[in-house]
TrEMBL record:
Matches recorded under SUPFAM superfamilies: CO dehydrogenase molybdoprotein N-domain-like, Molybdenum cofactor-binding domain
Superkingdom per UniProt: Eukaryota
Protein name per UniProt: Aldehyde oxidase/xanthine dehydrogenase a/b hammerhead domain-containing protein
Record-linked Pfam families: Ald_Xan_dh_C, MoCoBD_1, MoCoBD_2
Residue ranges occupied by any Aldehyde oxidase/xanthine dehydrogenase a/b hammerhead domain in the UniProt entry: 52-159
């Protein structure tokens, strides 16, 4: 018998097939009921309609028989002069009904949510692929697309800026977008010799497509020969649609109405980048006096409506040999694309969150908004916060490697706490970070998990496990002060049922359910007696977009205000009689000519930040959380899966813990997509095979979002108990965005596993890992005898940033 070469037992890990266990979920919360409904884990009020497919979205609205479908004529060049537009072929296309360009816009062709730096239809120049040049209408959606594709545009191509670095090199920044925040004296600290170590580095933060299930859609129609314009839009900001359409058509806002019943997800992608869709559809609708529907196909939606900003962070950080932070000098840049949109606010929120939860005595953060030749990037769950925090956790991780400690040790010794004064002068109050961190550490048995992973890694050469625990703090309020206002309209009917309308949009987050619970408890009636039908600019005017996670705080309080007014009017009647039901009381009030309808209003008190003095309180309060994750990677394929994720969040006394847990699970999985799966590939210097400025990953075939198979095998969520929030309605806290960043625990657990893989071949030095940690990046980072022939230990696979 031939003697075989012995294969180490640990090498069998290369061949062991992956087996997926069934998923175990765990949800732990206390119920703090207040009245009939607040605090109760009610199911989402439209969930039944949604699972049966009966719930209606913008595109489901029936069209009148003469209604038209629209398609956009889009730029194919990232930067060019428009030489000519030939629409002759389009005009003879089947079902064609009209083409409209800049010259046809009846009102103002300039649009934009803050600065009017965009054109509804491009006039002379295009500054990104996918910029709107015109709109074509036809009898069907397919015919409209066909005709739009036949419009021939002649361009004179101009040089394009296709990455943050190119923008920095060319000093291509949006005007007045330079921001700085400071505390202490960074330069003095670096020079003083107090720092045992000073390190520097660069973090490249990848983007993310919103991938709401319902693409952008608007249906616009006119009344009385165009003297009124109405629309149904899939948007987080009906008021912006009303305003854009009024301006583009040259009509007063009082003659334009936008309604939104619900949207199939927004995630920030419909805060501003939905409005130009409505405005584009309104032009043919108004000029032809016909209904026009514009619903984007998925690929077009992905190509033209913008994504989460990519960021570039350059840091220098000084610390003691114990790992105590002394000074941080940070420059951050975001890739705004070809218009300002919300990018300055996104940058500001990133700057506010660049400390994550760490005490840094000396800090200087400088930020810039880069103009690039891409579609305008925009709000996305976390609004720059996650990008700022991911940069922070990157240097924390690097400090840990430098000092040969676990990152959790570095994190803990630098935690902020009660009374901490942040780099923008806000002071922490009611800080629960320490409590929830300790609880999670105990329940996840971090030290044991680390030891188990170590043992596993000793026995498996080609599979590695890693663990990580990451904290977060998310500031609640729009950082633009005036936006923190909310209106509501409450009607009590004579049968005792209540119709609530408020300025917020239901996008799946359960806002209407929570707000209805507030009204039910206010009137002491069952939740089934309260209904919220839709959001409409003619019922509640001048509303902010539904965003910044604060909607249940804002609209809950506005609705409560309206309910209290009605209750006060009812009280004299209620006191006179012992009514057997709310319906009887309402009927009696009606007979006594009491107004059973009220407008409610709320503004967040005591907030405001002044960028000239860099002082103030941008936030009403903070939502704190932490997550533990354990992952396993296949070092030969780069595949990974999350074995465990444990999340804890402080949500005060939750208005609806069932919905809040759903928000946490959803945000975490969406965050998992951002940190480990979803990669946008653009035609840039790194991807020469894609036409310049074009998005290659324009659909689910090339862009991988998380699915059921990516849910952690053990997935548990708990809400911190016994900490009411004095700053918001019914002692609750905002939930929508804060848990998103916690998925970075998976990212750092992946990095921890890669560290174990590299240690086997004697590599202990720090190495870069950018998000998303896709199989390609994980594989290449696991230096071994195969990959080290081609790459250095600090190899960075290309990434569109
Ligand atoms: N949840 C669902 N199901 N769908 C969404 O589009 N958007 C998120 C979050 N949760 C979103 C969601 C974002 S980006 C924000 S800012 C908040 O919900 C907005 O709603 P809220 O203010 O009611 O929390
Ligand atoms: N968050 C979300 N959307 C916003 C904000 C914010 O802080 N500011 C302006 N729009
Ligand atoms: Mo959320 S990004 O504030 O819509």
């Amino acid at each position: 018998m031939k003697k075989s070469t012995a294969i180490p037992l640990s090498y069998l890990s290369a061949t062991q097939p992956f087996q997926r266990p069934s998923i175990m979920g765990n949800q732990d919360y206390e119920i703090r009921k207040h009245g009939t409904s607040v605090g109760s884990p009610e199911i989402h009020l439209s969930s039944r309609l949604q699972v049966t497919g009966e719930a209606e979205y913008a595109d489901d609205t029936p069209m009148p028989s003469n209604g038209l479908h629209a398609a956009l004529v889009l730029s194919r060049k990232p930067h060019a002069k428009i030489l000519s537009i030939d629409d002759s072929e389009a005009k003879s296309s089947p079902g064609f009904a009209g083409i409209f360009l800049a010259k046809d816009v009846p009102g103002d062709n300039h649009i934009g949510p803050i600065t009017h730096d965009e054109e509804l239809f491009a006039t002379q120049y295009v500054t990104c692929v996918g910029q709107v040049i015109g709109v074509v209408v036809a009898d069907t959606h397919e015919n409209a697309k066909l005709a739009a594709a036949k419009v021939v545009i002649d361009y004179e191509e101009l040089p394009a800026i296709l990455s943050i670095q190119e923008a920095v090199d060319a000093k291509s920044f949006h005007p007045n977008s330079e921001k700085c925040l400071k505390k202490g004296d960074v330069d003095l600290c670096f020079q003083s010799g107090q720092c045992d170590k000073i390190i520097d580095g660069e973090v490249h933060v990848g983007g993310q497509e919103h991938f709401y299930l319902e693409p952008q859609s608007s249906l616009v129609w006119t009344m009385d020969s165009g003297s009124e314009v109405h629309m149904i839009s899939s948007t987080q900001a009906p008021q912006k649609h009303q305003k854009y359409v009024a301006e583009v058509l040259g009509l007063p806002m009082s003659k334009v109405v936008c309604k939104t019943k619900r949207i199939g997800g927004g995630f920030g992608g419909k805060e501003t980048r939905s409005a130009f869709i409505a405005a584009a559809a309104s032009v043919p609708s108004y000029l032809l006096n016909r209904s026009v529907k514009l619903t984007l196909d998925r690929d077009v939606d992905m190509m033209i409506t913008g994504q989460r900003h990519t960021f570039l962070g350059k840091y220098k950080v000084g610390f003691t040999k114990e790992g105590r932070l002394l000074a941080l000098d940070l420059e951050i840049y975001n890739n705004a694309g070809n218009s300002l949109d919300l990018s300055l606010s996104v940058l500001e929120r990133a700057m506010f969150h660049s400390d994550n939860v760490y005490e840094i005595p000396n800090i200087r953060i400088r930020g810039r908004v880069c103009f690039t030749n891409f579609p305008s990037h925009t709000a996305f769950r976390g609004f720059g916060g996650p990008q700022g925090m991911l940069i922070a956790e990157n240097w924390i991780q690097k400090i840990a490697v430098e000092l040969n400690k676990n990152p959790e040790e570095i994190r803990e010794i630098n935690f902020q706490g009660e009374g901490s004064i942040l780099h923008y002068s806000q002071q922490l109050q009611y800080c629960t970070l320490g409590q929830l961190w300790n609880e999670l550490k105990l329940s996840s048995d971090l030290l044991r998990a680390r030891e188990d992973a170590k043992q596993f890694n000793l026995q498996n050469r080609w599979k590695k496990r890693g663990v990580a625990m990451v904290p977060t703090k998310f500031g609640i309020s729009f950082t633009t002060k005036f936006m923190n206002q909310a209106g509501a309209l409450v009607h009590v009917y004579t049968d005792g049922t209540v119709l609530v309308t408020h300025g917020g949009v239901e996008m799946g987050q359960g806002l209407h359910t929570k707000v209805a619970q507030v009204a039910a408890s206010a009137f002491n009636i069952p939740l089934s007696s309260v209904f919220i039908s839709e959001t409409s600019t003619d019922k509640v005017p001048n509303t902010s977009p539904t965003a910044a996670s604060a909607s249940s705080d804002l609209y809950g309080a506005a609705v409560l205000d309206a309910c209290e007014q009605i209750k006060a009017r009812m009280e004299p009647v209620a006191l006179k009689h012992n009514f057997s039901s709310f319906a009887e009381l309402a009927g009696a009030c009606y007979m006594q000519r009491i107004d059973l309808s009220a407008h409610g209003f709320y503004i967040t008190p005591d907030i405001g930040f002044d960028w000239t003095t860099c002082k103030g309180n941008p936030f009403n309060y903070y939502t704190y959380g932490a997550a533990f994750a354990e992952v396993e990677i296949d070092t030969l394929t780069g595949d990974f899966h999350t074995r465990t994720a444990n999340i804890i969040l402080d949500l005060g006394y939750s208005i609806n813990p069932a919905i809040d847990v759903g928000q946490i699970e959803g945000a975490f999985i969406q965050g998992l997509g951002w940190v480990a799966m979803e990669e946008l590939k653009w035609g840039d210097a790194a991807h020469k095979w894609i036409p310049p400025g074009c998005l290659y990953t324009s659909g689910p075939g090339s862009y991988k979002i998380p699915s059921m198979n990516d849910v952690p095998f053990k997935f548990s969520v708990s809400l911190l108990k016994g900490h009411p929030n004095v700053k918001a309605i019914h002692s609750s806290k905002a939930v929508g965005e804060p848990p998103f960043f916690l998925a970075s625990a998976v990212f750092f657990a992946i990095k921890d596993a890669i560290i174990a893989a590299r240690a086997e071949v004697g590599h202990h030095e720090w190495f870069p890992l950018s998000n998303p940690a896709t199989p390609e990046r994980i594989r290449m980072a696991c230096l071994d005898e195969f990959s080290s022939r081609f790459i250095d230990s600090d190899f960075r696979p290309k990434l569109s940033v």
